[in-house]
Amino acid sequence: MIVSEISKKGNWVNILFDNNELFKIPYELFVKNNLYVDDEISEDEFFKLKHQTNIYQIRQSSFRYLGLRNHSNNELKIKLLKKGFDKNLIENVIIELTNSGFLNDKIFAENYFQFQIRKKKGKLKIQSELIKKGINREIISEVGKNFDEDFSNESTVYEIGIKKFNSLKQKNNSNIQIKQKLFAHLVNKGFTTDLIGKAISKIMKEDYE
Fold first, then answer.
1. Is the pTM of this model over 0.85?
2. Widest CA span in the chain
């Protein structure tokens, strides 16, 4: 294949070959490969150009996603797959980004715990959400231990519980209905049954007094 025409459009370069095949390559790679009109490109060289271009596109997409927010490895992989990139090339880029520190599931989990605790979510709910994001269970367990003190805080469960209790009471629910709905509400928030039991007992006792 012989390069018959070269034209630049923005950050991309169109290369037209003598067989009328048009190939688009990022300007950065075009410069790196020193391509000129009348250059002869072998099949192997053309394959390498396509490979470099595909990797470049996956990297650029990855950095766009990571520029918006931190991602887990699995989250990023799924988004790249949805864009139609090759699975094996995605794996290579994920490894590259992980080795260079742009992706780190442990740091992702730590940040996620911190953020969700501020939103007053319970440990079980946060753990469940991290599993859905593809974080390894061992990492979740290890990182979660750093937040045991936050999760043993009974006042958070009580605070959420009393708010729900007042809402249920205004709707003329019986005590049994209030307890059942309150329990379900707090379970849905991801708190442990131990903390929920203590919070409900305290709320009902205060109401009785």
1. no
2. 93
